[in-house]
Amino acid sequence: MHDDIFPAISRSRGRRKLFKTDLGDGPVVAPPPPEVPARVQLQVPEPSSLPESIAAVTAAVSTVVPAAAEVLRAPITCSSLDGVFAQGGAVAGLLGDRYRPREGQVRMASLVRESLQTCQHAVIEAGTGIGKSFAYLIPILWSGAPAIVSTSNKALMNQLWDKDVPQLRKIAPHPFQAALLKGRSNYLCRVRLQRFREQPWLPGFEEERVALEQALQAEPSGDCERMQLPPALVTRLTVSSRDCEGNKCKHFNRCFYEQAKRVAVGADLVITNHALLCYNVLLTENQVLPVRPVLVVDEAHQLVSYAINALTLLLEHDLFWSVVNHKRTRDAVEEMGLLDAAREGYDVFFEAVRRQRPRARNDVGELGSRGAGEHRDGEGNGEVTRWALRGEIQEGLALWDTVKQIHKELQRVARPGDAAEMEVLLTQCTTIVGVLEALARPEPPDHIRYCDFNPSFPVSDPRAYQAQWQPLEVADVLQRSLFAEWPRVICTSATLGVNNDLAWFRRQVGVAAPELPVLAEMLASPFDYAHQMLVYTPSGLEPVYGEDEDRYVRALTGEVRRLLETSRERALVLCTSRRRMTQLYRELAPDLVIRYPCYCQGELSQPEIIARFKADGNAIIFATRSFWEGIDIPGEALSLVILDKVPFLPFRDPIVQRHEALIRQRGGNPFQELQLGTAILNLRQGAGRLIRSETDRGVIALLDSRVLTRRYGQQIVRSLPKGCHIVRLEAVEAFLVKRET
After folding, report:
1. CB 435 within 8 A of CB 314
2. For the domain 529-740, what is the CATH code?
3. How far apart are CA 730 and CA 562, in angstroms?
């Protein structure tokens, strides 16, 4: 249901030269395109009416595919959907007696329909329980518009693919083709698969071979997750883009990933994830997923973090050593000592990085209020595991120069039509050269260089350090590469608003400009939060560090103990630092485990902890904020979420410090623009984790009395569901008792 103009646009534009190079993605081979459906009405605007960036795209492709950009931005006709969502309508017939028309769902579908017809971007907060996937899929599928839906993780992708799309296929007015597309490393590599089959002497080979062949027969896509392969086998049978031989691979035409890409190009609806979307948009100029008329970014509150990750440069230890020690490298380098200089220079560079590491801190607490209501929150850990890199690092420049010489030697011996192995090696070396220069030279004001330390390695081991270069903000690049290039980007999530306004999110992603047409609306959840949920904040419990920290920790531990005894298990204890999590677990678990199963983050994988928690039905998890999002525990298995304090970003984190300095430099308020908005969205996400249906009931205990005493506390309270904030523990006990009766 789309024309071949869509891949043509990205092919005509070429690829930017970036440090992070796409290795091995061959050309997208599209199947013969069907005709553009009549229901996609074309109304081509005058070139002068298009924004400058769009006009440039139009001019670039005009000799290849006439009016390509105009077709992408032509109005998309979609008939009224009121009857589809009405009682007795198509959705009701599909879902049966459990279906109830929801005003928010109907309104969201109407906004998506308006976006299709008027070619506007949309930012829609759809509260938990609205049913946003049906609200955006139905207008798209009913209109016949070619579309991509991106979400934040594989679990949500699978929900769309296994549940929502098959259901809607039953009632859609037109047949449609759907495709699921993930990154390359999610699919079996046929080269490694062949290598595996040729090694029958390996321990456990026959058992693994039988399981693999059965899984591949059941899931011929080669998608490792859907094949349910064990992690160890996935590692052996997959390859990253940096190691792939691309279209020079002898198995290219049968490659599982390339086949998935070809299916996606020919499909009407493509389901993907934010990691691949950002890689595609920001690093390949839409080479993997060509521009389509409609893009839905579900769970859009995570878009910024994925964009930053896509643009982050890091010196990967395995990549460096695989290039330096590669047989082709050793054969190519004639200068004596050059490879030894690279090996030694690598260690010297990370020794220089290590020397920039600050000494352990004794004062790890808050800096208190600074300026107009500003707040800085401590990490609660004196060990420095992340620090900014400063100045020009001469050892890095020396290593950069050495690797450049190695790269020249590889270029010297390379020949046209050389083996794919050599081409991959050259690309990998190019990547390392670019990353080293970025890490060695002072970064621009809107970027940061920093190093992470992994304490599981010895201090002297270079593998303990990971040096990175990344942008602090991505609003401008998202505006240029995403919102200016894709005709309709529909951003949605249950949590986009701060202080009942979408301006904060719009600034983060680059759609705040008044001249940019955007449909923006916040739609309330159908859940009755005032009766289903309490947010409890005790008085007199404010985080303290330094000399009085022990007293504060004792008070915090006592409050957590009382809450757990009140709830009688079924609780998630979330801390803003690993140190605090460990303190609470060690103090409380020995007594609790006699009656209730207790789990601590890190003892098992997150999926295994969640699975056991659900199965137990009366367990307690101690964790950090990584458990705050992406988990789904409906029903009474989870009735209490305890958060040790307001989840502000740690003020000592060098990324946070540099970001705050950037905001201050342009005259902004770092607390309002960065800290408070992030904290509020994290808290609102927690409410969505706790209440998943009309019958769920539970308590969020925010053990931070600053919510009651600081000016910003009222902004936090206003962002939470109305009527559910209380300050008395007796009210929590009464609420939980009522739940059980």
Report:
1. yes
2. 3.40.50.300
3. 11
Smallest CA-to-CA distance from 7 within 239, 242, 285, 231 is with: 285
Residue 104, classified by CB atoms within 10 Å of its CB into exposed (0-12), middle (13-18) or buried (19+), is: buried
> C-alpha angle 711/713/715, rounded to 5°?
90
Helix (H) or strand (E) holding 452: strand 447-453
The first and second tokens of residue 232, run together, are 């160890």
> Which residues make beta-bridge pairs with 698?
533
Identity at 15, one-letter amino acid code: R
Whole-number Cα distances in Å, 493 to 205, 239, 271, 499, 648: 45, 32, 16, 16, 21
The answer to whether 399 and 436 have CB atoms below 8 angstroms apart is yes
Distances (CA, A) of 69 to 9, 16, 117, 286, 296: 8, 20, 16, 14, 19
Q: Which two tokens stand for residue 100?
A: 């109830």
Cβ neighbours of 101 (radius 10 Å): 15
pLDDT band at 232 (very low <50, low <70, confident <90, very high): confident
Considering all CA atoms of the chain, what is the largest pairwise distance in Å, rounded to the nearest integer?
81
SS3 category, 520: strand
> What pLDDT does residue 489 have?
98
DSSP state of 720: S
Q: How distant is the alpha carbon of residue 75 from its chain centre?
A: 31
* Mean pLDDT of the region 5-23: 31
Q: Which two tokens stand for residue 546?
A: 């330094």
Phi, psi at 448, each rounded to 5°: -145, 145
| C-alpha to C-alpha distances, 177 to 169, 208, 528, 705, nearest whole angstrom | 9, 34, 38, 53
Whether the CB-CB separation of 469 and 314 falls below 8 Å is answered with: yes
Q: Token digits for 383? A: 């060990």
Q: Per DSSP, what are the bridge partners of residue 535? A: 700, 725
- Reported as half-sphere exposure (CB side, CA atoms, 13 A), residue 437 has a value of 11
Map residue 691 onto helix, strand or coil.
Answer: coil
CB 244 within 8 A of CB 258: no
| pLDDT tens, position by position, 367-388 | 333 333 333 334 444 578 999 9
Residue 417 to residues 250, 327, 422, 428, 739, Cα–Cα distance (Å): 14, 19, 10, 18, 71
Would you state the pLDDT for residue 325?
A: 94
The answer to whether the Cα torsion of 496, 501, 503, 504 is positive or negative is negative
Q: In this predicted structure, what is the pLDDT of residue 741?
A: 54
71: its two tokens: 């077709």
135 CB burial (10 A radius; 0-12, 13-18, 19+): buried
Please give the Cα distance from 403 to 432 (Å, whole number).
8
Determine how many CB atoms are found less than 10 A away from the CB of residue 87: 9
User: pTM for this one?
Assistant: 0.85
Helix axes 338-355, 394-413, angle to 10 degrees: 150
Give the integer Cα–Cα distance in Å for 707 and 648: 12
Percentage helix, strand, coil for the chain under 3-state DSSP, each rounded to 5: 50, 10, 40
For residues 265 and 408, what is the distance between their CA atoms, to the nearest angstrom? 37
**Residue among 438, 428, 435 at smallest CA distance from 407:** 428
Let me know the angle formed at the C-alpha of 661 by 658 and 663, rounded to the nearest 5 degrees: 115
Least confident of 101-105, 375-379, 703-707: 375-379
**Number of residues written out for the chain:** 741
Q: 570's torsion region: left (phi>0), alpha (psi -120 to 50) or beta?
A: left
**pLDDT of 150-169, one tens digit each?**
999 877 898 999 999 999 99
Domain layout of the chain by residue ranges:
313-471, 529-740
Whole-angstrom CA distances from 209 to 192, 199, 214, 215, 374 are 13, 10, 9, 10, 59
